[in-house]
Design a protein that fits this description.
Elements lengths: L1 H9 L5 E4 L2 H9 L4 E4 L5 H8 L4 E6 L3 H8 L2 E9 L14
Parallel strand pairs: 1-2, 3-4
Length: 97
């Protein structure tokens, strides 16, 4: 995700990263992301409304689960989601995936 975000910045996009600690959020801001959301402490939906009030144009996901579901609901019309992995569901029973 950090590489994808840096590539997006090179293309001139506004980049919002999600991470699970203050240190990780600081890291992604240090490498150039515009915003960082600590998904363990912040409400992803309302924070995305603040940082992307018109919706998300492109979403890169390698986590899946509830985070993916929340961000996909925030996609703009004709927005794109790039799904790379589903690590949050690796240990889920097959019938729940």
């Amino acid at each position: 995700g950090s590489i994808v975000g840096q590539l997006a910045k090179i293309q001139g996009l506004t980049v919002i990263g999600l991470a699970g600690s203050e240190d990780k959020c600081q890291f992604i801001k240090d490498i150039g992301f515009d915003h960082a959301i600590d998904y363990k402490k912040e409400n992803i939906s309302s924070t995305l409304d603040k940082y992307a009030p018109k919706g998300v144009d492109i979403y890169f996901d390698n986590v899946g689960g509830e985070i993916r579901d929340t961000v996909i609901r925030k996609l703009r019309h004709k927005g794109r989601a790039l799904i790379c992995g589903q690590i949050s569901t690796y240990n889920e029973p097959q019938d729940k995936v």
